[in-house]
Design goal:
OB fold (Dihydrolipoamide Acetyltransferase, E2P); 8 helices; globular; binds adenosine-5'-triphosphate
């Protein structure tokens, strides 16, 4: 449905997006995730046609809409954008806002479509309200269906939850996902918030400094990050120091672990491997001990920050059931239970 090949974006000859390629299938929800200023919005604007790429190609439904020789205007792309601030017209009612993009249809058809869309987002009966008479979440839902009114091929959502309270965001993200899936819409969202990306998307692209580092499911980003930035950005975790021995094993303070030859490391290499909080198991009988430096109660779990008893006093995180109530300063037994080895050169 959407394909980007080697897309670059530049403003006044300064490149801010470099060589980005990915594809979104019909009915999929994608998300571009990255820190502020990494180039996510620029990519979205190029896909919408508000900006031209400086190199590469964008295709929607196998039709090239932007390359060196082609530029299809935004109106002709069958793409709709939901902006950060919803941009609902304050002087129009909910029904008028939604019907705005389909005003060329008959009054009867408009009314039917508005009713259908309001029912989709659970706002039947809200037709005559004005935007200021709606909550933030309700306004966001109206903005979504207004964008969907003319049945676009592709929906683009630019930080759609950023003006909402943080407690609301994840719930609304899950709700919007259900609505988009029900409508079988193809959508691409940008955000810097990974909880939103996880709640909404089938496939997530992590962007940093204008480059797409990995395009994969949330599971793969968390468990098989392809890059050190992705490993650090997604989820919690720390990098532990280790050395490669002559049996292709990692020798670390928390034990010796085999590594795959495909990693391409040699004996004596100094490396770092990723340790997630759920890889550290609290075990009173374990040979290794660590001191509780900090703790935060998370309901079912307690997240401990622990200092290892090695010369560097490396820190690790440990997610333990919260009924194990250890105080700051206590020493507790831990062992490492790694499912995948994620190793990077130092
Ligand atoms: N119209 C413009 N002219 C010049 N530079 C721009 C323009 N728009 C964006 N930039 C620059 O391009 C880079 C990428 O910006 P972009 O808005 O795409 O990032 P972003 O990841 O969406 O950031 P945020 O999450 O803060 O919105 C930034 O360095 C920004 O300053």
């Amino acid at each position: 449905m959407l394909r980007l090949n080697h897309v670059c974006v530049a403003y006044q000859n300064k490149t801010v997006v470099t060589d980005v390629s990915f594809a979104l299938k019909a009915g999929q929800i994608g998300c571009l995730l990255g820190p502020s200023g990494c180039g996510k919005t620029s990519l979205l604007r190029v896909i919408a046609g508000f900006e031209k790429s400086s190199a590469g190609e964008v295709a929607i439904r196998d039709e090239v809409v932007c390359d060196r020789a082609t530029f299809v205007s935004p109106q002709k792309r069958k793409v709709a954008v939901v902006f950060q601030d919803y941009a609902l017209f304050p002087h129009l009612t909910v029904a008028q806002n939604i019907a705005f993009g389909i005003h060329k249809q008959s009054k009867k058809a408009q009314k039917k479509r508005v009713a259908e869309l309001l029912s989709l987002v659970g706002l039947t009966g809200f037709e005559q309200r004005y935007p200021h008479q709606l909550s933030g979440g309700q306004q966001q839902r109206v903005a979504l269906v207004r964008a969907m009114a003319d049945s676009p091929e592709l929906l683009l959502l630019d930080e759609p939850f950023s003006s909402l309270d943080s407690e609301l965001r994840e719930g609304l993200a899950r709700e919007l996902r259900a609505i988009l899936k029900y409508a079988n819409a193809t959508a691409l969202m940008v955000t810097h918030d990974q909880a939103e990306a996880f709640a909404m998307a089938d496939v997530i692209g992590v962007v940093n400094q204008g480059r797409l580092l990995q395009w994969a499911s949330a599971y793969a980003l968390y468990h098989r990050p392809a890059d050190r930035f992705v490993a650090n950005f997604i989820g919690d975790g720390v990098f532990m120091r280790a050395r490669v021995n002559n049996n292709m094993q990692l020798v670390s303070h928390l034990g010796v672990f085999p590594i795959d030859a495909s990693f391409g490391f040699n004996e004596g290499d100094e490396v770092e491997f990723l340790v997630r909080p759920d890889d550290i198991v609290h075990d009173d009988n374990a040979a290794n001990h660590a001191q509780v430096m900090n703790r935060s109660f998370q309901g079912a779990h307690m997240l401990y920050e622990l200092a290892l008893q090695d010369s560097a006093q490396q820190r690790v995180l440990c997610l333990a059931p919260s009924h194990h109530d250890h105080k700051i300063g206590e020493n507790i037994g831990i062992r490492l239970d790694l499912e995948h080895m994620i190793v990077f050169s130092v």
